[in-house]
Amino acid sequence: MYLTRMYLNPARRGTRALVGSPQKMHAAVLSAFPPGTPTETESGRVLWRLDVGKTHELTLLISSPVKPDLAHVVEQAGWPTGQDHWQSAPLSRLTERLETGQSWAFRLTANPVRSVAQGSGRGKRVGHATVQHQLEWLVERSADWGFDIGGRDGRLTADVVSRRGLSFERRSDGDRRQITLTTATYEGTLTVSDPKLLRLSMGHGLGRAKGYGCGLLTLAPRT
Fold first, then answer.
1. Do residue 73 and residue 106 come from a single domain?
2. Which one of 16, 47, 49, 76 is least enclosed by Cβ atoms within 10 Å?
3. 102 and 84: one domain?
4. What are the two backbone dihedrals, phi and then psi, of residue 142, each rounded to the nearest 5 degrees?
5. What is the CATH classification number for the domain harbouring 50?
6. Which candidate, 168, 216, 159, 164, places its Cα nearest to that of 189?
7. Can you give the pTM of this predicted structure?
8. What is the pLDDT of residue 177?
């Protein structure tokens, strides 16, 4: 698995088009892999996330089984005259170092949802609307993903730093469908409880809406 980083130029029209539609960004990310390239393996699948910095800089992160070629994204939304338009590094440099009990700083954008019963049929998935429920969603699932954010004193070691409600059009085989998503971006410190599970979670993503910029968990040393 590889983690790739590319900075987007917020002044370009192409950037605004990609940022405004997770469907278009999803298509652009998948186009970074030639036909026949595996986009999902035992180790993981293609995931992406768009990070917005404190000064509104835009960073596209992609996790993938093979290195992507983002030349088309550079032409549409990058700085074509620069060098080193994107950087890729093996995720194994980090994941092979994971051990039980370690603490890492983390960032995750996810689609926290709940199932609402609809008669006798299958429940409808609805996004959690409050910060409290979005945090509870992550806490309840963290053990299954190989980490803990409970804190030794019982307090949470993570918070929701941004939330968005997204609505965009999805086109497939001539059909048009309006997609609505609720996303939450979490930051904080996690403690590794199961290194193997955490490696799998980082490779395959957390939660739903993985094709639309959700599910990519990244770690960094605590500062």
1. no
2. 16
3. no
4. -60, -40
5. 3.30.70
6. 159
7. 0.90
8. 75
